[in-house]
């Protein structure tokens, strides 16, 4: 009888497991081998980010050791000057994975999540690419704004959007969203200070600051009796905000949103918040986000900022066994949080607080009365616990020491490998540069010696002088390219934006490169109809065009080199093209064209830096550069520049 029962249990267990099938063969393949990609907005090594990534990875590996987790740092920091590039940068990262590679994508931080949301709304092809991949938001909020496609001005005023309202665009998306309940904070303020007439919202020069400001501007319309002031760190310096706070009328309240980055993109000092409010300490300060709680803020209705990586991992697993509706957003709960010291200072009594409020720095009267006895009891307990801990430390000390030594040994080996790799790269660079510099120098020195000989004829001197000039120009170009690469790598690459007439620019480019043109090659300019004035850096865009035309001259022995540009208002850019009738570039080499020191022909002059520099310049100007794979009568390079 017992054996029959065991057999029956085995059959039931077998069929219950067999019911968990994957919805499609593609899902089954991705579930076992796909990549779980974690995309951080910036600084993934902060404690809360690294804790999440480690817990997420450990959970996935515990369920399936073959799970792969990869981390991508987008570096989305400078909101004011770089936010219009975020969507393209994110799209480039995600498009770099083949179809079926990604098992899931987790976006850490508001900047990366908002870029994904904006791409999904604006780019239907991107949305189609991501529609069958579960995506998750972490450390993001329910409210947000669309990422702009162009660089923002200080007076850019976006409209607040809700993530849940965009569900149709983002496919299978979930995660944890913080909810900033503006109405409950206003209700709290009016309960404590019913005569409030002015509320000043403090936000900074970040995506979070801009999104909170747009949320408050939208919902403040429900309170026409209150005058709202916006102390926006994107518009005002720290000193200007201080003056505006000092000028606030009576019955004013300060509502804290964000205060981390100033107008110039620099981080505020730790005491900045205290300094700007120091002149009006009598004003009540509330917090919408938790900023200032424990120092300046009386309190507020604040999100708890919880996130469970195990729940996200569970939803991913459920998705790949067919339960796709398990992917959902979880709204973090909020609590009424208060600082007892500020409550007392502002004359607010505890009975006025909402139910289930959390009060910090509050002390029970009985604890005050028996504080001395409590301290003695605590000390006794601490001593006992210390003895136990001491014994445990002795027991584990050798084990921990051994682990530390093993870890240090591993780190030393890794550091050694990195150093050796750096030496190899440095040696390769020096070898390459030594060869490229030696060639023109040898020509200059050799022909200079020939010119110094008394037997040198006048015609030979003219010929030698021409060779020396050509090699001097080549050497100067090489050194200029190296300096440009250095500036780009160290962040000292600056743009001088001014208005440029494109037709005049093209004529100037042809004049500059005429001496490079071979006999039998014709220069052709195909301008856009009508005059086109573009705001750009004249020197840098000329550098890109000269690089492209110089390359065409190297490989075009007859035919034509055509420089054209086309105004595309519907796309908000100008399309430049440089087309030649030369030997062309094999398709298998297209992917390496814009790499540093990449030369298609080892016997052609040049260090292989021109196209790499051109790509960085075009990207910095807000455009994209590529080679046309469909053109087969030579080579055609294209790049865009925003209007």
Task: Give the arrangement of secondary structure elements.
Layout: H1 2-18, H2 25-33, E1 35-40, H3 47-63, E2 68-73, H4 79-95, E3 102-108, H5 110-122, H6 124-130, E4 135-141, E5 143-144, E6 161-162, E7 173-178, H7 182-192, E8 198-203, H8 207-219, E9 227-232, H9 238-246, E10 252-256, H10 272-277, E11 285-287, E12 299-303, H11 309-319, E13 329-331, E14 334-339, H12 340-346, E15 358-360, H13 365-369, H14 371-452, H15 458-490, E16 497-501, H16 502-513, E17 521-526, E18 533-537, H17 538-555, E19 559-568, E20 573-580, H18 610-620, E21 625-627, E22 635-642
Parallel strand pairs: 1-2, 1-3, 3-4, 4-7, 7-13, 8-9, 8-10, 10-11, 14-15, 17-19
Antiparallel strand pairs: 5-6, 12-14, 16-18, 19-20, 20-22, 21-22
Helix pairs in contact: 3-11, 4-5, 5-6, 14-15, 16-17, 17-18
Radius of gyration, whole Å: 33 Å
Helix content class: 40-55%
The assembly state of the depicted protein chains is: single chain
Q: Structural class, judged by helices and strands? A: alpha/beta
What separation lies between the terminal Cα atoms? 83 Å
User: Strand order of the main beta sheet, please?
Assistant: 2-1-3-4-7-13
**Biggest pleated sheet:** 6 strands, parallel
Poorly predicted parts: 1-22
Number of structurally distinct domains: 4
If you consult CATH, what is the topology of the largest domain?
Answer: Rossmann fold
**Would you tell me the overall average pLDDT?**
85
Q: Give the overall form.
A: globular
Percentage of residues in strands = 15-25%
Q: Treating each run of at least 4 consecutive H or I residues as one helix, how many helices?
A: 18
Q: How many strands? A: 22
> What CATH architecture label of the largest domain applies?
3-Layer(aba) Sandwich
Supply the CATH class of the largest domain. Alpha Beta
């Amino acid at each position: 009888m017992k054996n029959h029962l065991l057999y029956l249990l085995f059959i039931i267990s077998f069929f219950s497991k067999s019911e968990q099938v994957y919805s499609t063969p593609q899902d089954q393949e991705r579930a076992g081998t796909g990549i779980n990609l974690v995309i951080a907005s910036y600084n993934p090594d902060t404690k809360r980010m690294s804790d999440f990534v480690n817990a997420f990875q450990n959970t996935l590996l515990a369920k399936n050791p073959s799970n792969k987790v990869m981390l991508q740092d987008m570096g989305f920091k400078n909101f004011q000057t770089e936010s219009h590039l975020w969507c393209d940068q994110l799209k480039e990262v995600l498009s770099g994975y083949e179809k079926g590679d990604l098992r899931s994508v987790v976006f850490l931080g508001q900047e990366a999540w908002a870029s994904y949301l904006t791409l999904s709304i604006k780019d239907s092809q991107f949305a189609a690419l991501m529609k069958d991949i579960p995506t998750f938001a972490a450390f993001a909020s329910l409210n947000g704004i669309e990422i702009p496609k162009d660089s923002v001005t200080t007076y850019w005023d976006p409209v607040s959007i809700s993530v849940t309202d965009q569900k149709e665009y983002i496919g299978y998306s979930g995660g944890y969203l913080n909810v900033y309940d503006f109405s409950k904070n206003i209700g709290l303020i009016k309960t404590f200070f019913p005569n409030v007439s002015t509320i000043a919202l403090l936000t900074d020069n970040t995506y979070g600051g801009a999104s909170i400001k747009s949320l408050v501007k939208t919902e403040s319309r429900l309170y026409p009796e209150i005058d709202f002031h916006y102390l926006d760190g994107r518009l005002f310096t720290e000193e200007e905000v201080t003056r505006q706070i000092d000028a606030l009328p009576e019955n004013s309240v300060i509502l804290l949103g964000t205060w981390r980055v100033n107008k110039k993109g620099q981080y505020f000092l730790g005491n900045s918040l205290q300094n700007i409010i120091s002149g009006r300490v009598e004003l009540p300060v509330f917090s919408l986000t938790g900023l200032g709680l424990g120092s300046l803020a009386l309190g507020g209705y604040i999100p708890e900022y919880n996130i469970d990586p195990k729940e996200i991992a569970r939803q991913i697993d459920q998705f790949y066994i067919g339960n796709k509706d398990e992917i959902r957003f979880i709204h973090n709960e909020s609590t009424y949080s208060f600082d007892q010291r500020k409550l007392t200072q502002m004359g607010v009594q505890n009975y006025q607080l909402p139910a289930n409020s959390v009060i910090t720095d509050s002390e029970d009267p009985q604890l005050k009365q028996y504080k001395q006895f409590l301290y003695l009891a605590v000390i006794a307990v601490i001593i006992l616990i210390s003895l136990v801990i001491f014994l445990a430390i002795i027991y584990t000390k050798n084990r921990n020491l051994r682990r530390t030594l093993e870890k240090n040994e591993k780190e030393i080996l890794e550091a050694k490998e990195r150093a050796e790799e750096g030496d190899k790269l440095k040696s390769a660079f020096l070898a390459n540069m030594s060869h490229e510099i030696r060639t023109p120098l040898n020509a200059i020195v050799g022909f200079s010696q020939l010119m110094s000989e008394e037997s040198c004829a006048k015609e030979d001197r003219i010929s030698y002088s021409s060779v020396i000039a050509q090699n001097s120009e080549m050497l100067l170009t090489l050194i200029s390219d190296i300096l440009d690469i250095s500036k780009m790598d160290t962040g000292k690459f600056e743009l001088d934006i001014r208005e440029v007439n494109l037709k005049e620019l093209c004529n100037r480019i042809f004049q500059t490169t005429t001496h490079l043109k071979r006999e039998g090659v014709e220069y052709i300019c195909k301008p856009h109809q009508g005059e086109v004035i573009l705001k750009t850096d004249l020197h840098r865009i000329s550098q890109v065009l000269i690089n492209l035309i110089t390359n065409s001259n190297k490989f075009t022995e007859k035919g034509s080199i055509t420089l054209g540009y086309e105004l595309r208002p519907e796309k908000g850019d100008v399309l430049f093209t440089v087309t030649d009738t030369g030997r062309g570039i094999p398709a298998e080499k297209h992917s390496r064209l814009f790499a540093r020191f990449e030369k298609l022909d080892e016997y052609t002059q040049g260090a292989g830096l021109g196209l790499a520099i051109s790509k960085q310049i075009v990207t910095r100007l807000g455009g994209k550069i590529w080679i046309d794979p469909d053109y087969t009568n030579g080579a055609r390079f294209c790049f865009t520049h925003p209007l």
